[in-house]
Design goal:
Layout (H helix, E strand, L loop, with lengths): L1 E4 L15 E7 L2 E6 L5 E7 L7 E4 L4 E6 L4 E7 L15
Antiparallel strand pairs: 1-7, 2-5, 2-7, 3-4, 3-6
Length: 94
């Protein structure tokens, strides 16, 4: 699926428990942010078409979020299973 995301878009810390996810930055600039079960940042990966990193795989069950850094950012998002809407247990509450 293609997603167009603007800076300031609310993207909660969440996880996917039935599939992994691959994100490819086609346009713009964003950061994928990874968290542990306590909500602590464990890794940050910058994605941009002209950079060394344009794609990232997010393992099944990994808490993550996105920070969009450039207007007009577009990503290709794929999952290795059927799309499942997030349940309440899949969104981290602060």
């Amino acid at each position: 699926m293609l997603n167009a995301i603007e800076p300031g878009s609310p993207l909660p810390i969440h996880r996917h428990t039935k599939s992994s996810e691959t994100v490819v930055c086609l346009r713009g600039h964003l950061r994928e942010i990874f968290y542990n079960d306590r909500g602590e940042v464990t890794d940050v990966i910058d994605l941009a078409p002209a950079s060394d990193c344009v794609a990232v795989n997010i393992p099944l069950g990994q808490w993550h979020s996105v920070e969009v850094l450039e207007s007009g950012t577009v990503i290709l998002e794929t999952k290795d299973g059927q799309y499942e809407p997030l349940g309440e247990e899949d969104v981290m509450r602060g």
